[in-house]
Amino acid sequence: MLPQEIIRIKRDKGTLSAEQIREFIAGIGIKKVDDVQVAAMTMAIFLNGLNKRETIDLTLAMRDSGDVLRWDGFDKPIVDKHSSGGVGDKVSLMLAPMLAACDVYVPMIAGRGLGHTGGTIDKLEAIPHYNTAADNTLFRKTVKEVGCAIIGQTGNLAPADKKIYAIRDVCGTVESIPLITASILSKKLAAGLQYLVMDLKCGNGAFMANFEDAKALAQSIIDVANGAGTQTRAVLTDMNQVLGSTAGNAVEVKEAVEYLQGKNVNPRLDQVTRALCTEMLVMCHRCDTLAEADKMLSDALSSGLALEKFAQMVAALGGPTDFVEKYEQYLPHAAHIKPVYTAQSGYITAMNARAVGLSIIELGGGRSTPAQTLDLATGYTEFAQVGDYVDAQKPLALVHYQTEEQFERAARALLNAVTVGKTQPAPANPVLLKI
């Protein structure tokens, strides 16, 4: 069937057969389906949706567009976590080595920035010579020897998703439950996982701003993943503010390392990371209770083993062998750092995290076109949280920038993104729901 005819069916709100979906996805790899046709199909799906069976068929077709990894001979649970995307979300950088230190295998296939959200792979590329495009042999070797490895999609791992992912990012079709489900799970299923915990972000900085939409995405992912043989749970977490005290690429790597060192632990970031880790450790039967799992994580951090796992992963994938000791020297630095102060003193009562994410794109730290080269040094540090007091001495954030024009744009964006009031809001739990 011609690609345009398959597009026409979904455009007219029809139901696609498994064969039509497989034919369209296979056509991407053999150049029978053009980029503009992929964009048209994603828009048709964005507008008209897919039913559960269509979503499963799309996920499996994208998974089977390349290699599907097998973990024969690996004698520990094969686990992973995935986030639906947030601003300042560097959880994967800590979670993978923390879980590896708890004696499970974590083969993590991560993505680049999408829309206003940052990407784990972009962050890791701030580490000199870190190989985010490791082949399957090196990937397996690193997982076996270290316990964890975080890489991007290679050409042979769900390659159809890699193409679709880049096109969705720049054609306005990111916020679609079936497309998000298929994109996430095609990579995860191709990685051969036994257990998966989803971090579904909800709030103004998430792709799903509405709580009910986030629950629907969580249920979609659980249904498709469990139907495909991967045990899956979901945790809904808050994304109505920056997660952690940094937002950017290199600056988030720095915060992740310092978290693992125990010297810069943001409470909300810690809560989210531990919630995901403990769910995983119980689900894969490594621990019997969440309390037991939390104690195991605390031991992994306090002993230094989680930090050691991160260091070993970086070295195994081509990065510096002394990265965790000299990360300040290795990570790129912006030419200038300057604080942004609010016009009035008071407590931050609300934050538009999406606006903060978009401002990072303006700083060069995110993409407006698929092939754009990022400035990995720019971003924000010491980012105030909702409930924090800001005044003429306590800034909203420190901006890491290259030009004065960048700083002026960033400062305007940050000031417009926050609300300051006289009454301190009550602290809110960043973990909203577990499914």
Topology:
Layout (H helix, E strand, L loop, with lengths): L2 H9 L6 H12 L5 H14 L3 H12 L15 E5 L7 H10 L5 E4 L10 H5 L11 H11 L1 E4 L7 H12 L6 H14 L4 E8 L8 H17 L3 E8 L8 E2 L1 H12 L5 H17 L6 H13 L2 H12 L10 H4 L5 E5 L5 E6 L1 H10 L16 E3 L7 E2 L6 E5 L2 H14 E4 L9 E4 L1
Parallel strand pairs: 1-4, 2-3, 4-5
Antiparallel strand pairs: 5-13, 6-9, 7-11, 8-10, 8-12, 9-11
Helix pairs in contact: 1-3, 2-4, 3-8, 4-9, 4-10, 5-11, 5-12, 5-14, 7-14, 8-9, 9-10, 12-13, 16-17
For the biggest β-sheet, the strand order reads 1-4-5-13
Tell me, rounded to a whole number, the average pLDDT: 94
Using only C-alpha atoms, the radius of gyration works out to 21 Å
- The level-1 CATH class of the largest domain: Alpha Beta
- Which series of helices and strands comes N to C? HHHHEHEHHEHHEHEEHHHHHEEHEEEHEE
Number of strand elements: 13
Fourth-level CATH superfamily of the largest domain: Nucleoside phosphorylase/phosphoribosyltransferase catalytic domain
Percent of sequence in beta strands: 5-15%
Count of the separate structural domains: 3
State the distance separating the first and last CA atoms.
Answer: 40 Å
* CATH topology-level fold name of the largest domain: Pyrimidine Nucleoside Phosphorylase, Chain A, domain 2
How many helices?
17
Main beta-sheet strand count, sense and barrel state:
4 strands, mixed
**SS class:** alpha/beta
In short:
The protein has 435 residues and is α/β, with parallel strands linked by helices. It has three domains: 3-49, Transferase, Pyrimidine Nucleoside Phosphorylase, Chain C (Transferase, Pyrimidine Nucleoside Phosphorylase, Chain A, domain 3); 79-327, Pyrimidine Nucleoside Phosphorylase, Chain A, domain 2; 331-421, Alpha-Beta Complex (Aldehyde Oxidoreductase, domain 3), CATH 3.90.1170.30. The protein has helices spanning 3-11, 18-29, 35-48, 52-63, 91-100, 120-124, 136-146, 159-170, 177-190, 211-227, 250-261, 267-283, 290-302, 305-316, 327-330, 353-362, 404-417, and strands at residues 79-83, 106-109, 148-151, 195-202, 231-238, 247-248, 336-340, 346-351, 379-381, 389-390, 397-401, 418-421, 431-434.
